[in-house]
Design brief:
Helix content is 58%, strand content 3%. The longest helix is centred in the N-terminal third of the chain and has 34 residues. The N terminus and C terminus are likely disordered.
């Protein structure tokens, strides 16, 4: 009979969970990146066509993703002790120098990729640019760490830094995707999409009112101008 809490190969079940949970989170985050990227491409391609379905779906996905991130990161118990770390890179250095480099690598990858879908969906749903998305991602990470602290888990500034970097990378990736899809589809920049805003009347050249007084308006035979008349000059020798 193997001791309680140990697997078939003598490994501590808790240690296995600590190793597999970050890996599973990283894999799920990468899958979410693919889904968010597909939604972003569909939103860009639907811009200017009047179809609001992709935008509504992106907004629903963004809200759902934020709720899932908050729920998982606050409620999921990985056995971490409570506390606060305000020293940048302290936890990262301890994990890399510790006895669990594999767990540290998966943990870093998971924290880095965690908010990349957030950034992609934010561009598709709300049109947020790089700065706004990075700030929003950092604020979400801070809120999550505060929630973890008050739920008895640890709050770490390293998580905020890595999450913010992931949001920045996701925002840059979203900008690149939008530019490539627009160039491939020939979509103008101001096309009525939710993240660019409709162009104003007359901004692309000819307005609805046609040409002005000096342009080539509708022309046709109109009433001829009356000829200017005046005294006819008399020729020489006439009475």
């Amino acid at each position: 009979m193997r001791p309680a809490g140990r697997g078939a190969h003598g490994c501590d079940d808790r240690r296995v969970n600590l190793l597999t949970a970050p890996a599973a989170a990283a894999v799920l985050a990468c899958a979410a990146v693919l889904v968010a990227g597909v939604l972003l491409v569909r939103t860009v391609r639907a811009a200017g066509t009047g179809r609001r379905g992709p935008v509504a779906l992106a907004r629903l996905a963004w809200v759902g993703f934020v709720l899932v991130v908050v729920w998982l990161t606050v409620s999921l118990d990985l056995g971490a002790e409570g506390g606060v770390n305000l020293v940048p890179f302290a936890t990262v250095r301890l994990q890399l120098e510790g006895l669990e480099p594999v767990r540290a690598a998966w943990n870093l990858l998971g924290n880095l990729v965690l908010l990349v879908p957030f950034a992609l969906l934010a561009r598709a749903a709300w049109g947020w640019r790089v700065v706004a998305t990075t700030v929003a991602g950092g604020a979400l990470s801070v809120a999550v760490e505060v929630g973890q602290y008050f739920s008895g888990r640890s709050a770490d500034v390293d998580d905020v830094m890595v999450n913010g970097l992931g949001a920045l990378l996701g925002a840059v990736l979203a900008a690149v995707v939008v530019r490539l899809v627009r160039r491939d589809e020939g979509t103008p920049r101001h096309d009525g999409s939710p993240w660019s805003g409709p162009s104003g009347p007359g901004s692309s050249g000819a307005g609805p009112s046609g040409a002005g007084p000096s342009g080539a308006g509708p022309s046709g035979p109109g009433p001829s101008e009356p000829a200017l008349s005046g005294p006819t000059p008399r020729s020489a020798g006439s009475p």
